[in-house]
Amino acid sequence: MLTHRQRKELSQLQSRHGRRKSERFVAEGRRACLEALTQRPDWLDFLVCSRSFAAAADSHDLLQRAGAVAGAALEVVDDREFAALAATETPQGVLCVLRRPDTGVPEAVADPFVLVLDRVCEPGNLGTILRTAWAVGLSSVWLTEGCADPFAAKVVRAGMGAQFSLRLVLSGDLATVREQLAARGRQPLYLTVPKASLSCFAAGFDLAGAALVIGNEADGIGDLSLGPHVTIPMPGKAESLNAAQAATVLLFDAVRRGIVK
Predict the structure, then answer these.
(1) Over the stretch 161-177, which tens digit does the pLDDT of each residue have?
(2) CB atoms within 10 A of CB 68
């Protein structure tokens, strides 16, 4: 049975305002919970599952992992109650409540280049970009104020485990981020802009030791004076690419060039 504190925590985490006040976040679904328990078991506060999930043979490994985490609780509720707690329309029967990690600005940057997201506000885009950054081998992603909450349930589901492998740095506006990165030896700040003169495939575009900015889905990058502009050539007549698509092209071109490997 869930305690009063656990019920209150779950209720609070269902709203953006509540998440801002909480030091916890929710990962829902088998894949997200398994990634959390595999990579960050120390973040686990408690796990909730439905009776149907607990009875399923293929759930035993996940529940054993949760049960082995010192200080964490494992709660089983009836299926109807779980459906009321879940954020998805067709819940898989399991969710984890996890402690938020440190999102402060680090003293140093280890990656060969830095990915910065400027006010990326669509949860699916943000989660997909985080997963792509994880796939290419980056260890951190910087987010400006105005981005979607990277620990919101929809973003965690779209990230499919990325939040448990990446260090997410939550900073101020883009000008502040540029100053912070310059102080850590990372410049210039390349701004992705449709139809810029510099192609991302040109020899003159070098991300090594630099930073790459992906902007807001509707408005692009907030301040276009903060660095050189780079574009993805588009011979067709589309005005622009989806933010997550653009990030994928640019990040995997860095793999092609051997900047990340």
Answers:
(1) 999 999 999 999 999 99
(2) 11
Residue type, 230: V
CA-CA-CA-CA dihedral for 189, 195, 201, 203, to nearest 10? -70
CA-nearest of 99, 31, 42 to 66 is 42
The ranges of the chain with pLDDT < 50 are none
- Class of residue 117 by CB neighbours under 10 A (exposed 0-12, middle 13-18, buried 19+): buried
Q: What is the pTM of this model?
A: 0.94
Within its chain, how far is the Cα of 189 from the centroid? 21
d(CA 41, CA 31): 14
Q: Show the tokens assigned to 4.
A: 């009063």
Are the C-beta atoms of residues 91 and 16 closer than 8 Å to each other? no
C-alpha–C-alpha distance, residues 116 and 6, integer Å: 35
Give whole-number Cα distances, 202 to 6, 67, 154, 250, in Å. Answer: 54, 52, 36, 12
